[in-house]
Structure formats: structure tokens, C-alpha cells
């Protein structure tokens, strides 16, 4: 059974690697009045790629989809208005202008050999705190209903950390959870993406401290309970979308699952 599980995981991980290479945006950096921005737009082939990809995500049961061009523009603009009090505007070419945040991506921060483990954990804590704050925002969804916000692709590549200012800022709201999923499921899925994509860049010996950092900095019991349920469910049901977000090997994934469940208080499960 262990061999079969490893083979299955390896195949799903390979599919995740393929998904991780997909790019449907064109982004370039520019300055307006000496202020840095990113001009963002969908690639010419983006519409077909997104449509096909969303069919695949639905079959996977990912409960998330990538937004087509006009929906994405409205959603990202609304998120920036509600969360950051910033009005996004297009440039003369129709590209959406997104401000550059000070700092570096959490992915780059964790990959740096010049930063010690304590500082890396501190940055992860900042990202979890920031995620908790954006989850408290209420926003109008595509169906006109107002619900709490979730990111949809909350990996370490989509958050900027500034260790000098002690801030973390989430960006790239291209993906959205299905509105039918209840709020704590959506929040837990964001926490999963943050935790597992961070673990990809850390040694497994540090997983107990990583999971304690996540749980300590996200003080919402119902969401943490939903995270425990999701980890238990996906233990033997990996999907390529999750392994595109976090490229973690089979044994490393097991160790992370065990550390996270132990931290969440699910000791009986973790001991299995």
C-alpha cells in the first residue's frame, strides 16, 4: 500500500509541476510620477487557457477557479478598494496598474541563505496575521452577495513582507474560491496554501515551529478546526492544484501533516 501511495503521489505531484508552469498574465514594471507600479493584463491566449483550466479545477474538486479577464479586473479592483483603500486604474493600453509594495516576496525571503530561521518564522507570522486581517474584510462577490474575503491562492509567492516595517501585504487576486464553500473552509484553504508553500522552502526539522507560528498568528478556532479537517481529508487524496501551490515530496508532506495535526491538537491522528 505504501508503494502504491507513493506512486500515486508522484504522479499527482508531476501534474502539479505542470500546472505550476502555467502563466496567463503579462506583467511589466513601470514608474508613474516616480512611483513604481506593475502593469498587469491577461495574455492573448489567456481566455482559452483559463476556461480549460477551470474545467480541470472543477473536476479535481479544488473549489477554486481562475477569473476571466473582466471578472478579474472587477474583483482585484474591489479587493484593493476594500482592503487597501486604493483605487486601481488602467493605463492607456488598458493594463491594470497595481502599486508595488515595499519588501520582497515571502518566497524569496524564505529562500535566502542570509536570513536565519527565527527571522523566517517571524515573516511567516506576519503573513498569517495579514491573512487573518484580510479574511475579516467583507466584499461583494460576483453574484452580488456580500461575503468575507478569501484569497484563493495564498502561497508565499503572493505576499510581500517588509521586515523593517514589520508588515506583510497580500496581492495577486486572480483566483477565487467557489462562493458555495462556507467561510471557514475558504479561510482554512488559504492557511493550507500558506503553510505548505512555506514548508516547501524550510527543512522538515523546523515543521513543529512552523505550524506553531501559523496557529499562534491566526487566532480563529473555527478556521483552525476546518484546517484540521482539510488536512485529514487530503492526507490520502492529494490533488495536483495543491501540489502546484506547494512542491513538497511525499515524506516531507507526511511530516508536515503530522506536525500540523499535532499543533492543532489532533494527537491521535498525528500518531497514526
In short:
The protein has a 4-stranded antiparallel β-sheet, with helices on one face.
CATH C-level class of the domain at 2-22 and 102-270 is Mainly Alpha
Ends apart, CA distance between termini: 15 Å
H/E topology pattern: HEEHEHEEEHHEEEEEHHHHHH
Shape: globular
Determine the CATH superfamily of the domain at 2-22 and 102-270. Answer: Transferase(Phosphotransferase) domain 1
What does this molecule look like?
The chain is of the alpha+beta class and 272 residues long. It has a domain at 2-22 and 102-270: Transferase(Phosphotransferase), domain 1 (Orthogonal Bundle), CATH 1.10.510.10. Helix content is 51%, strand content 16%. The strands form four sheets. Strands 1-2-5-4 form a four-stranded antiparallel sheet, with helices on one face. Helix 5 runs parallel beside helix 7 (207-216).
SSE order and pairing:
Elements lengths: L1 H19 L4 E8 L2 E8 L3 H15 L3 E3 L2 H16 L4 E2 L5 E4 L4 E2 H6 L5 H19 L2 E3 L5 E3 L10 E4 L4 E4 L4 E3 L5 H17 L7 H10 L4 H14 L5 H6 L4 H14 L3 H4 L2
Antiparallel strand pairs: 1-2, 2-5, 3-11, 4-5, 6-9, 7-8, 9-10
Helix pairs in contact: 5-6, 5-7, 6-7, 6-8, 7-10
Amino acid at each position: 500500500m505504501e508503494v502504491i501511495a507513493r506512486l500515486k503521489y508522484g504522479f499527482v505531484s508531476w501534474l502539479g509541476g505542470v500546472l505550476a508552469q502555467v502563466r496567463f498574465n503579462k506583467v511589466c514594471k513601470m514608474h508613474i510620477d516616480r512611483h513604481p507600479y506593475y502593469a498587469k493584463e491577461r495574455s492573448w491566449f489567456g481566455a482559452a487557457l483559463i476556461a480549460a483550466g477551470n474545467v480541470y479545477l472543477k473536476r479535481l474538486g479544488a473549489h477554486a477557479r481562475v477569473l476571466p479577464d473582466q471578472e478579474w479586473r472587477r474583483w482585484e479592483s474591489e479587493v484593493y478598494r476594500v482592503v487597501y483603500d486604493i483605487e486601481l486604474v488602467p493605463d492607456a493600453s488598458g493594463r491594470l496598474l497595481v502599486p508595488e509594495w515595499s519588501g520582497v516576496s515571502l518566497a524569496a525571503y524564505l529562500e535566502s541563505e542570509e536570513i536565519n530561521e527565527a527571522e523566517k518564522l517571524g515573516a511567516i507570522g506576519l503573513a498569517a496575521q495579514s491573512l487573518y486581517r484580510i479574511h475579516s474584510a467583507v466584499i461583494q462577490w460576483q453574484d452580488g452577495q456580500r461575503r468575507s474575503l478569501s484569497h484563493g491562492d495564498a502561497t508565499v509567492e503572493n505576499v510581500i513582507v517588509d521586515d523593517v516595517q514589520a508588515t506583510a501585504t497580500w496581492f495577486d487576486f486572480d483566483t477565487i474560491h467557489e462562493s458555495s464553500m462556507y467561510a471557514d473552509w475558504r479561510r482554512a484553504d488559504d492557511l493550507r496554501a500558506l503553510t505548505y508553500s512555506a514548508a516547501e522552502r524550510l527543512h522538515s526539522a523546523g515543521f513543529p515551529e512552523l505550524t506553531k507560528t501559523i496557529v499562534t498568528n491566526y487566532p480563529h478556532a473555527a478556521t483552525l478546526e476546518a484546517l484540521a479537517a482539510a488536512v485529514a481529508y487530503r492526507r490520502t487524496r492529494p490533488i495536483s492544484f495543491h501540489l502546484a501551490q506547494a512542491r513538497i515530496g511525499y515524506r516531507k508532506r507526511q511530516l508536515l501533516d503530522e506536525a500540523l495535526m499535532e499543533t492543532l491538537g489532533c494527537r491521535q491522528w498525528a500518531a497514526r
